[in-house]
From TrEMBL:
InterPro entries: KAP_P-loop, NTPase_KAP_P-loop. Signal peptide: none annotated. The keyword Protein transport does not apply. Residues 41-500 form the KAP NTPase domain. This is NTPase KAP family P-loop domain-containing protein 1 isoform X1. It comes from Mustela putorius furo (European domestic ferret). Keywords: Membrane, Transmembrane, Transmembrane helix. The keyword Transmembrane helix applies.
Length: 691
């Protein structure tokens, strides 16, 4: 019998069978039901991590593929929204407070809070777990023809937030809003009255009323029997009071209207369109002020709505732009991330090999990004390398490719209508439908309980793995670098690796949490050397001479280190990514002696190792294994060679004499030269290039 697993996905709880089953048929509907693919598992783990990761964060979504990336982004979006809805329901059960709406009847209340109340960041707000994600997708290809690609990124972000919450609230906040303040002591009040605004508004309204009253009295004083001097005096004071108060109110309305019709996007485009905008003093400072205003507005909305807000900006098509444009976008991202409280999550969908080459060839980055990989590591705080397409994913893609467009649309419609049940039918079938519905409810409840147990066990193992990083009784912390960005990369990657191990081994019979976090540190600190070991293992497996499962990775690296040394010139930039070589030897040789079997298990769960490095090594190794064609031999050289071969009897003890004879005559036989070269069993006995 096949084993069955239960994994919760965006569309509900789906049964996941063993990889040998592929697809299965629904006996009632007679249609193929979808199973969870490898891409679904990876997207689910990344989505859960992004719901808990501290912001701001830049996710390096590394992959050389095409439309599959957009499909994975759509899955991640759906899963993050599902996780946000679940946390919203849990927070509602905990505090019994409904989030305040910003549309409909809640819109006048929002304007009232914007004008008359001051938000305060309290401990209650910091403890909130519910979150709302705002997804904005930026395609760099649409702005590839302009010199201001980075400006398109900033304007797209501002326009997306303005479009989601409306132009009027942001315009009112730009004129009358106030930055949220920190809580004084242990005060739990989230809103304080803005006394200055209230007093100023009351003073203007009082002055306006007084002026109108004086003008009315001056009109009455012009009647017969009243003094003309008194009427003129009242008219002067009334006109002055009305003019001053009215002008103050009109100025406020004019400022709000100006921000209403002139958005941040138009402001930035106007600054960029000016001649010599780059040489203007404080130009980037003005852009930074606009971004800070946007961040403060989002913080205000967090306190008003009683939930955390996260803006997810998906940057695609960056590897199709010119190098200078790429540099501008990365600088814009660093500008947006310079605020430590910015609620931004950047998903950088790129091919790292192309992006590194763009950074290295950009003229403005000479001396700063001579190594594009190092510069990219300084920007990305959560690397996620999309794995090679798995078996189930490939089957699903092939199945969808065979189907026609109408069949795909029909399948989507039936999938949406399936939970509602069938329409029509006789009276005898009603009992069977009710029984099927009850069975489906019970099955779903049991699956949810099983999934909750799996999530609890995964959370415990993630805690155990993260504890190994800062446990002073363990030696793992010695291999963690002092760089804060690298620490965040490791900490952000560990939950994904542990969850992937959980999906791979449901009974947790595979590597331990300590081994998982050690593997993450190994991939982060020595990506070049680890990629070389994995490439050597792959080549040996393809040649049919794979090492034993219990063989150590250090022995594999040591046996092939000479060949890696011969490639230092071609892999110089990649080798610069590695840390201390002595620590690498101690890591694999003594403290964490990973075996070949463990490496093959952990490789399927590795997301922080750039696969393009291994592909580059494989190409270089394949080219170096090719032999040049031997030149034709002349008869003058063949005769002495044949004579020597006939005079010497075959035997191992005659090889040195032949070698010395060849050296004395200035000719080295081919077989004698090959006899002293080390041979690689993974390449079928071909001589391995020496250092």
């Amino acid at each position: 019998m096949h084993k069955h697993y239960t994994v919760r996905f965006a569309k509900g709880t789906l049964p996941l069978r063993t990889p040998t089953e592929g697809y299965f048929l629904d006996p009632e509907l007679g249609q193929q039901k979808d199973i969870l693919t490898e891409d679904d598992v990876y997207c689910s783990c990344l989505a859960k991590t992004l719901c808990h990761v501290p912001v701001p964060v830049t996710v390096g979504f590394y992959a050389p593929f095409g439309c599959r990336l957009h499909m994975m982004l759509d899955k991640i979006t759906a899963l993050m929204q599902q996780e946000a809805a679940q946390r919203e329901a849990e927070e509602l059960r905990r505090v019994q407070w409904q989030p305040r709406p910003v549309r409909g009847w809640g819109f006048p209340r929002l304007l009232w809070y914007l004008v008359f109340l001051q938000p305060v960041i309290t401990e209650l707000h910091l403890r909130r777990k519910n979150v709302k994600f705002l997804f904005i997708r930026f395609s760099a290809w649409q702005y590839a023809g302009t010199d201001k690609l980075w400006a398109g990124l900033v304007t797209t972000l501002c326009e997306g937030i303005r479009h989601h919450y409306g132009a009027l609230p942001f315009s009112v906040y730009s004129v009358l809003g106030n930055k949220p303040a920190a809580t004084p002591g242990f005060c739990q009040r989230e809103w304080h009255c803005r006394r200055r605004v209230c007093l100023a508004l009351l003073a203007l309204l009082a002055a306006l009323g007084l002026g109108v009253g004086l003008l009315y009295l001056s009109v009455g004083a012009r009647a017969p029997g009243h003094g003309a001097a008194g009427g003129s005096l009242l008219r002067v004071f009334g006109g002055a009071a009305t003019t001053l108060s009215g002008s103050g109110l009109l100025m406020a309305v004019y400022s709000v209207g100006k921000h209403l019709f002139v958005s941040q996007r138009k402001k930035i485009e106007r600054l960029v369109s000016r001649e010599k905008f780059g040489s203007q003093l404080g130009f980037m400072c003005e852009v930074k002020k606009e971004v800070e205003l946007l961040t403060d507005f989002l913080c205000f909305l967090e306190i008003y709505q009683r939930r955390r807000l996260r803006v997810v900006l998906e940057v695609t098509g960056l590897d199709t732009c010119y190098p200078e444009r790429v540099v501008g976008v990365l600088n814009a991202i660093n500008t947006l991330l310079s605020d430590s409280h910015a609620p931004f999550i950047f998903i950088l969908v790129v091919d790292p090999s192309i992006l590194a080459a763009c950074l290295e060839s950009a003229g403005s980055m000479k001396g700063t990004a001579d190594n594009g990989y190092l510069f990219l590591n300084r920007t990305v705080t959560l690397p996620f390398s999309v794995p090679i397409m798995g078996r189930r994913t490939k089957l699903q893609f092939l199945h969808d490719a065979v189907q026609s467009r109408d069949d795909l649309l029909y399948r989507e419609m039936t999938r949406k209508l399936r939970p509602g049940g069938a329409v029509g039918g006789g009276g005898g079938r009603g009992g069977r439908d009710e029984g099927a519905q009850l069975l489906a409810v019970e099955t779903k409840a049991a699956a949810e309980r099983a999934q909750s147990r799996i999530d609890a066990e995964a959370a415990r193992r993630i805690q155990e793995a993260l504890f190994c990083l800062h446990d002073e009784r363990d030696c793992l912390y010695e291999y963690v670098p002092d760089n804060v960005v690298s620490m965040r990369r490791i900490v952000n990657t560990v939950p994904i690796t542990v969850r992937l191990l959980q999906q791979q081994d449901g009974d947790f019979a595979g590597p331990t949490p300590r081994q998982a976090v050690a593997w993450v540190v190994l991939a982060n600190q020595w990506p070049c050397r680890l990629s070389w070991v994995l490439q050597c293992l792959e080549d040996r497996q393809q040649a049919g001479g794979a090492p034993e499962a219990g063989a150590r990775l250090w022995n594999v690296f040591y046996d092939n280190s000479r060949e890696l040394h011969s490639m230092t010139k071609a892999l110089q930039n990649v080798l610069d990514l590695d840390g201390d070589p002595e620590l690498f030897e101690r890591f694999l040789g003594a403290d964490f002696p990973f075996t070949v079997a463990e490496a093959q298990t952990l490789l399927r769960c590795t997301v922080n190792l750039d696969h393009s490095i291994r592909r580059r090594m494989g190409l270089i190794r394949a080219v170096s294994a090719l032999k040049p064609p031997s030149p034709p031999k002349s008869p003058a050289h063949d005769t002495p060679h044949d004579a020597r071969g006939a005079n010497h009897a075959p035997g191992a003890n005659h090889a040195p004499g032949a070698l010395r004879s060849g050296q004395g005559s200035g000719h080295v036989p081919a077989h004698a030269g090959e006899a002293h070269q080390p041979r690689d069993q993974g390449h079928g006995g071909k001589p391995r290039p020496a250092a």
